[in-house]
């Protein structure tokens, strides 16, 4: 409270300044009294004992009640608005005149603003010289009344809980959950030892503390601090209803944290006024930790499933490694990670993918097996951990650190699949970290996934390489057979390769797939393979063949079927060798197929075979012109050839030379 004291000035020197020592002592005494009067921390009124008029009021009382000095002085007690009971004030003055002393333990005075202030009021009558005066000492007891109310609330709360049964308190005292009892103004009036332990404060420290005291630090599950309105006891006071299963965290000190399940309920008196709020706190820290572990495990499993999906549905090593390293950084909360691939030919570890690096220095790493941390991890097939790179690092990591990466710790894990070294997974931190067994186990699991991914891609690459080599071997074999046939009959040299090229080009116009075109090419190359079984006397005869010789010659298609059908990968190529002499009108051989019964590849090849034969020189005739051959093909459309095939072939830009 502010005090507006009156400045006491030293009296000016007068003719009467040369007073006696006694007179000077009286003056000094009066000055000391005045100072005490104006600086007192209680209100003081001075009244004329005969008239009852107020002659003086000190600054403390003016400040406490809000009235001006003028509203007090030369007025009687009952004329001042602070004394709300006029009759009682008059009677008190009369009693004071008679008894010379009066005391009120709890007298309500009203401020000018209308607020009631409980005071202790003590009045005495005494003489000042020949004058009888009354001094009223008025002390504000608001704080004392609040303290007394708190003690009463505590006693009432204890009484309501125990209700004359000591066993109830003994039960609460030994409950495995915390119990805190709040007064209606949220101050704590009672708590059991478990609550004290959970909140990290002794009972003496807790009693009297309000819910909004900054002493407490409670948080939501997401880590944000609870507002004062969100505190359980305040929610119950505000709503008057039970609060059930409210989860909150308690922060004790700098790093201690526990989680509690809160239930709070109000207790009302017979007058339906709130008497207290009982709050129970069940420690669920272990459950919360278990939930967090389960959540982390679920996230880890989800990450492993996504990595597995990337491995199974893609044979792109860069894509698989990028997916893996993304999860490594997110799930392990590391700053950077990379994969070094083992090259068995050079016996070195070479960068294949990385995430989180500020520079590209890591991309140029080539570590010999057994050298550096990664080389050591690969050779020993065991994880390497360097907790402080500022104290120790190899020459390879030294280059990375000098490039400005600022890493402080390192893990290198060998990638092993089916007993074979695939590479090394490296992870880096830029700030000190501590890791538990679960973290290390997940790092190893991710390394195992990386090894599987590399192994799968390697197997796929090897398989693709084998397939390419096998396909090349097939092509070489088939082309060798076709060349062997041409060597036997020089007159048709180059014919097989030409018809194969033309047939594939035209077959593509009919929408055949790439796989089907491979079989078409092979069939075209082997279209006359059956002639290998025809005797030279017939095959190389310059004169016209007899009917009997034609019977033998026509068997070359059947011979082709017998030669190729046992070879499984050539069965789809049999359409041309077996059916290219069938005719659209059904007069061809060997089966006399008609129309669409003839395989499409054979119908296309039949046109190409005649085109190339007529456009080539023979010993018995010269080659025909393009227009003459095209006219010849049109003339055979509908009898020898499929009309649609003839039209597509002649309308294309393939048969123009």
Tell me about this structure.
- The longest helix has 52 residues, at 437-488.
- The radius of gyration is 55 Å and the shape is rod-shaped.
- The N and C termini lie far apart (117 Å).
- The model is unreliable at 1-17 (pLDDT under 50).
- A hairpin with a 5-residue loop joins β3 and β4.
- It is an alpha+beta fold.
- The chain contains 22 helices and 17 strands.
- α14 runs antiparallel to α15 (514-525).
- The relative contact order is 0.04.
- A 6-stranded antiparallel sheet has the order 7-6-11-10-9-8, sandwiched between helices. A 6-stranded antiparallel sheet has the order 14-13-12-17-16-15.
Strand content: 15-25%
- Give the averaged pLDDT, no decimals: 84
Task: Report strand order across the widest sheet.
Answer: 7-6-11-10-9-8
- The amount of helix comes to 40-55%
Label the structural class: alpha+beta
Count every helix, treating DSSP H or I runs of 4 or more residues as helices: 22
Q: Quick one: biggest sheet?
A: 6 strands, antiparallel
The dominant shape is: rod-shaped
Count of distinct strands: 17
Distance between the termini: 117 Å
Over all CA atoms, what is the radius of gyration?
A: 55 Å
Low-confidence stretches: 1-17
